[in-house]
Design a protein that fits this description.
Layout (H helix, E strand, L loop, with lengths): L1 H61 L2 H4 L5 H5 L1 H9 L3 E5 L13 H4 L8 E5 L6 H11 L7 E6 L11 H7 L2 H10 L4 H11 L10 H12 L2 H35 L16 H15 L9 H5 L1 H4 L4 H10 L14 H8 L3 H14 L3 E6 L4 H4 L6 H16 L5 E2 L19 H15 L5 H8 L19 E4 L2 E3 L15
Parallel strand pairs: 1-2, 1-3, 3-4, 4-5
Antiparallel strand pairs: 6-7
């Protein structure tokens, strides 16, 4: 009996140990799945938290976007948070350009003129001095679907007269690691377009120093071979993480900037009033005349005093001597045709950057308007850069931009206007009033086919106020005896921009 009880106990104990071993085995098998599940949940929570933080940052920044609109701040250009906030604001028209957005126009430059929404919108300036098309191509690709359906303006300068386009010094000055990383790893644009932009970026290697992951990704994209693309896709997960971290840093920088500048944080009071465009044009002409009174070329007084530092030594004196002789090289009758300048202009790398920039905008469903700041013909007519040579620039710009189906103007009809631009490629006050007028029409959806043809032919003018109904403040001439008038403003309200 006792032996039987001992045997039963032994069997029972062995069975218990067997069950316990199976339980431990089952627990050990499930442990990796528990760890993986916990990791995935943590990643999901981190993604949700980062999206909430990004949305919060954009919401907070958007409250100050209008106040920041006319300010020259590098953080507005290098930080995508500010630009996403501007695109999210239905009252803002972003304009991407360089120093001309901020300089030398006595308050007539668009971002300041439209600050208080006189016709229902404000113009948001993005860009710093020496920003060019390649940087904006990267920026638009990084902004991605935020551009869909949005009106944007591109203000282009004469980088096309340089073989490389924008200089390495200028590109490095504007380079943004955040923009570049989001472009390389998180942009929704097609792979061939990303490869082409990466190829252009590699012409400026100094900006990539200290960013080995980004440099490797751009190199692999630019090569475009199956092996290099396989290497790029291996880098892609880590690159997306780096881009994600960069955007979060950008959000934090944007919020920190506003906390440190409380005077710029907050809304701006609107002042809805229909501009009297002909009167503004007269005032701007007087301002331009005063700002350029010490020379006959419409160059700002301070620039004329420093003319030898801006253009080749002796060029200003030679131009003035030719003018005093009553001669001009407008038709090319004094100096030989500048073949080297024309050849360099036609083959500039900037044209490739411009094409890529426009392709990015088109692929993302943006609605751009593009203009070229014209050359200072009043001065150039007394140098070897004759009008036939300058027309090569205008015609090629028209062919490139017009070929993309984008509304544009070269302002070539103002090439010989004394008060339209200065020697730095900035609009004078008189030039800005014309630009402001056109941008007002663009915002309100008034650039119909006929007006677009007139713009493509070199620009439009502001006719007398009597040409338009009372309350519209003048119109835009589109041909002999014809006028396109701006939207009527009355009772303190302006019709919203059409979708």
């Amino acid at each position: 009996m006792e032996d039987r009880e001992i045997g039963l106990y032994t069997l029972s104990n062995q069975g218990a140990r067997t069950v316990d071993a199976k339980a431990r085995a089952a627990h050990g098998t499930s442990r990796p799945w528990i760890g993986i599940t916990a990791f995935l949940v943590a990643v999901l929570l981190a993604v949700v938290a980062s999206m909430a933080y990004n949305n919060r940052a954009i919401t907070i920044v958007s409250r100050s976007s209008q106040a920041l609109a006319p300010l020259l701040l590098s953080i507005k250009t290098r930080d995508l948070t500010f630009q996403r906030a501007a695109l999210a604001d239905p009252r803002l028209l972003p304009i991407f350009g360089t120093s001309e957005l901020y300089c030398c126009a006595g308050g007539f430059n668009g971002p300041r003129f439209f600050l208080h929404e006189p016709t229902g919108f404000a113009l948001y300036a993005a860009g710093v001095p020496v920003t060019a098309d390649l940087f904006f191509a990267e920026t638009f690709a990084a902004l991605g679907h935020a551009l869909h359906g949005k009106r944007v303006v591109v203000s282009d300068s004469a980088w096309f007269t340089s073989a490389l386009g924008v200089s390495p010094q200028a590109y490095n000055h504007t380079f943004s690691p955040e923009v570049a990383e989001v472009f390389a790893f998180a942009s929704p644009i097609a792979l061939p377009l990303r490869e082409a932009i990466a190829h252009q970026m590699l012409a400026y290697p100094r900006g990539l120093v200290g960013h080995p992951l980004l440099r490797a990704a751009l190199r692999d994209l630019a090569r475009g071979t199956p092996a290099s693309l396989a290497a790029y896709y291996l880098l892609d997960p880590v690159g997306r993480l780096a881009a994600w971290v960069s955007e979060l840093r950008g959000d934090a920088s944007a919020l920190a900037y506003l906390r440190g500048h409380p005077s710029q944080a907050g809304p701006v009071a609107d002042a809805r009033q229909a501009p009297d465009w002909p009167a503004l044009l007269r005032r701007a002409r007087a301002v331009s005349a005063a700002l350029t009174a010490n020379n006959p070329f419409g160059i700002l007084k301070v620039q004329w005093r420093q003319c030898g530092d801006i253009v080749p030594a002796g060029a200003c004196a030679s131009a003035l001597t030719l003018l005093r002789r009553g001669a001009t090289n407008e038709s090319g009758s004094v100096y030989p045709y500048p073949s080297a300048w024309v050849r360099q202009t036609m083959t500039s790398a900037e044209w490739t950057d411009l094409r890529l920039e426009l392709e990015v905008l088109r692929s993302l469903g943006a609605r751009p308007f593009v203009y070229l700041i014209p050359m200072q013909g009043v001065y150039d007519n007394h140098t070897p850069l004759s009008l036939p040579a300058r027309q090569v620039l205008y015609q090629h710009f028209a062919a490139v931009v017009g070929g993309q189906g984008v509304p544009f103007t070269t302002f070539s009809r103002y090439d010989g206007s004394r008060y339209f631009v200065d020697s730095f490629g900035h609009f004078n006050a008189r030039g800005w009033v014309t630009v402001d007028y056109i941008l007002n029409l663009f915002w309100h959806g008034r650039l119909g086919p006929r007006l677009r043809r007139q713009l493509a032919a070199g620009g439009i003018g502001i006719p007398p106020a009597a040409s338009c109904p009372r309350g519209t403040g003048g119109g835009v001439g589109v041909g002999p005896g014809s006028t396109v008038c701006p939207p009527r403003v009355g009772g303190g309200t302006v019709a919203p921009a059409p979708a």
